Amino acid sequence: MSAALPTAPVLHSEWIKIRSLRGTFGALIAILVATAGIQALAAAAIGQEEAGSLGEDPLLGAFYGINFGQIAAFAFGASALAAEFHNGALRTTLTAVPNRTRFYLSKVAVVGGLAFLVGQVAGLLTFLLGQAFMGRYALSLGDPGTLRAVFGSGVYLTLMALFAAGLTAVLRSAAIVLSVLIPFVVMAPFIIGQAAGGVAEFLPDQAGQLVLHGAFTGRLGPWSGLAVLALWAAAALAGGWLAVRRRDA
Q1: Which of 93, 96, 178, 242 is 20 to 30 Å apart from 39, CA to CA?
Q2: How do residues 138-151 score in pLDDT, each as one tens digit?
């Protein structure tokens, strides 16, 4: 496996690909814009009306925008991988990087690294911009759980991007992945939650967003919830690795 680890030239080439693809790079920037921007707009509109105006859990409400930022994270991860399966791009890539594991790990490393950097900035800006409009109901970075939520929000967005990337490597279509993931995240918790009790707690978004909560009542806590999301992402990435190794370019 060590012979297949990413190298600096391969990582750099993957960064060039992402930077050169307008849709992919735009989705990366949209993670920041959607998460922080929508949070600021929501807080500006209703933040000072009353306590609990952004939900019963003030800390979770401080990251309301992440519900929109995660869709951009899906789009970023999916489009970054899908670009390899259009117009014979993968054959060209494998000509330059014959080791498929090295190619795949390099792609995943760059997608994850960029999502993490942008996610951390998005998490901090989301909190600061949103709380700037909350008046006497504002939280501060020193309040219990706040720094954990700021850091965890960036990790959450990263794992969601990697989850989408892994599924795209399996299905070879960003459109299919997004048409499955977005309804899955938006609708499944309500459907499964009502039909199967606590099963919804282990869905990717429900588990991962526990890191943003100020209070916990279920079986999972902030870090164990994030670990559940990491398992979902790892399973998708493992499936993607097998697909890349075994299928024809």
Answers
A1: 178
A2: 889 999 999 999 99
